[in-house]
Structure formats: C-alpha cells, structure tokens
C-alpha cells in the first residue's frame, strides 16, 4: 500500500523568502506519480506541481519546484520568493500507475509573514 | 468552462437522517472521484466512478455509504443513517481520461451531523 508522510504540521516564512516543505512516500511500484496540492482557506484543492517518477528531471512551475530523490523516496516542495497568497495548507500526494486514486499526506500549514 | 460543481456547499443533518451530496464534473469529463477530509487530516479516497460504473470503491465504508454516476445527471454520494463521525468535508474531483495525471477538484461539501 502507498503511504505519504508530511513531517511538518506547520511552517512559516517571511515574504519574499524561500521555504521548503518535506514529503516522504512509500510504494512498491515502479510506476507512480507525485503531486503537491494547495488548499487555501476557501478549501478549494489546487494542483501546484506534479512529477512523474520515471522522469529524473525535477519539475518546476514558476516559483514552485520540487526536489525529487527517488532512492530516498523524498519529494520536497520549494517555494521561492514567497507571497502572502501562498499561505495555505499544502498536501503531498501520490498515485500509482494503473490506479486512479490519490493518496494524501496529512498536510503542512504554511504561514507567510509580511 | 465551468469547474467541478458540488452542492450543497454546506449540509446539516441530524443523526439517523440521510445525506445526499452532488457532484457535476467538468464538461467533457467522464471520470469522477470522491474523497473525504476529516478535521486536521488529508483527503482520503473513497470511490472512483465512470458513467454508470463503479471502478474502485476500496475506500468506501462497507455500510451506509453508496455512490452512483448515472448516464445523465450528477454523481451522487449518499450516506444513510448519518452518525456524528460522518461530519467531514467531502470533495469530488473529475478527469477527462483514465490515467490522466490531473484531477480537478470541486469546492467540497461540508457535512455537519448534529
């Protein structure tokens, strides 16, 4: 069974600084995908970034990038130039190839201080 | 293109009543997923449906919970004889294709059982 662990219940960062959110996962599959979702106070789930396990290159979306360490089963999210609008819950998730369901971690609450 | 629609956004039921949660996927999407989010937790997969078919219900409680996605109309998550432990946010997501890497989430229905 897949598991996703986020060890940081809360994190804070100063506006314009960089913050890294941690995520580790466990899977016995070789074909899987990893995601970071953002959940602002509105509770809408928004996909931030995704990574296919077979790709060695780390995914990047504007100010968001990941550090994917396949051997260590680690998938951290780096937010550069943090903005007040980045404040939210961030969930790490995984899915296995051939399975449609997403498995989520418990989330990290990010606070951005002005 | 309207996003995933869920209604109602808030639902209050007394113990023993039935709760019906509706989800209209994005236009052109024929795959629907239901997730439950308990307070202070990540989302937990419940069920995956295609039109008129349940594909994966491995996350559904064995009793009182059912889901459908008819040929016409929204997907329905039905909870019979609700108990206080059913209080949670229920999210629906949709995707256009099987194996599509992105699931688009609705705003969720917050169920409160008194």
In terms of topology, how is this protein built?
The complex is a heterodimer of chains A (114) and B (114).
Chain A: E1 3-5, E2 10-14, E3 19-21, E4 24-26, E5 32-39, E6 46-52, E7 60-61, E8 64-69, E9 74-79, E10 88-96, E11 103-104, E12 108-113
Chain B: E1 5-7, E2 10-13, E3 19-24, E4 31-37, E5 43-50, E6 53-56, E7 65-68, E8 75-79, E9 88-95, E10 104-105, E11 109-113
Parallel strand pairs in B: 2-11
Antiparallel strand pairs in B: 1-3, 3-8, 4-5, 4-9, 5-6, 7-8, 9-10, 9-11
Question: Would you write up a description of this structure?
Answer:
The complex is a heterodimer of chains A (114) and B (114). With 114 residues, chain A is mainly beta. Chain A is built from no helices and twelve strands. Chain A starts with a strand and ends with a strand. The relative contact order of chain A is 0.34. The mean pLDDT of chain A is 93. Chain B is mainly β and 114 residues long. Chain B is built from no helices and eleven strands. In chain B, strands 2, 4, 5, 6, 9, 10 and 11 form a seven-stranded mixed β-sheet that branches. In chain B, strands 1-3-8-7 form a four-stranded antiparallel β-sheet, with no helix packed on it. In chain B, a hairpin with a 5-residue loop joins β4 (31-37) and β5 (43-50). The relative contact order of chain B is 0.34. The model of chain B has no long low-confidence stretch (mean pLDDT 92).
Short key terms for the protein model shown above:
heterodimer, A: 114 residues, mainly beta, six-stranded mixed β-sheet, 0% helix, B: 114 residues, seven-stranded mixed β-sheet, 49% strand, globular
Largest sheet of chain B at a glance?
7 strands, mixed
Structural class by SSE content of chain A: mainly beta
Strand content of chain A: over 45%
Mean pLDDT of chain A: 93
Structure in a nutshell:
The complex is a heterodimer of chains A (114) and B (114). Chain A is an all-beta fold. Helices cover 0% and strands 53% of the residues of chain A.
């Amino acid at each position: 069974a897949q598991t996703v662990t986020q060890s940081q219940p809360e994190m804070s960062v100063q506006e314009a600084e960089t913050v890294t959110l941690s995520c580790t996962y466990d899977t016995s599959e070789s074909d899987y995908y990893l995601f970071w979702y953002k959940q602002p106070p509105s509770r809408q789930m928004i996909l931030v970034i995704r990574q296919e396990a077979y790709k060695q290159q780390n995914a990047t979306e504007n100010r968001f990038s990941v550090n994917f360490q396949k051997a260590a089963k680690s998938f951290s999210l780096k937010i550069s130039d943090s903005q007040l609008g980045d404040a939210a819950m961030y969930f790490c998730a995984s899915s296995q190839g051939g399975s449609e369901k997403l498995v989520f971690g418990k989330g990290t609450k990010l606070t951005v201080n002005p | 293109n309207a996003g995933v629609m869920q209604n109602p956004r808030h639902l209050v039921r007394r113990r023993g009543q039935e709760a019906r949660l509706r989800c209209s996927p994005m236009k052109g999407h024929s795959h629907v997923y239901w997730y439950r989010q308990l307070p202070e937790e990540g989302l937990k997969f419940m069920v995956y449906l295609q039109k008129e078919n349940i594909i994966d219900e491995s996350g559904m409680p064995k009793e009182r919970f059912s889901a459908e996605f008819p040929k016409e109309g929204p997907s329905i998550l039905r909870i019979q004889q609700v108990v206080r432990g059913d209080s949670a946010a229920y999210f629906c997501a949709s995707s256009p294709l099987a194996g599509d890497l992105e699931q688009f989430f609705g705003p969720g229905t917050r169920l409160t059982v008194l």
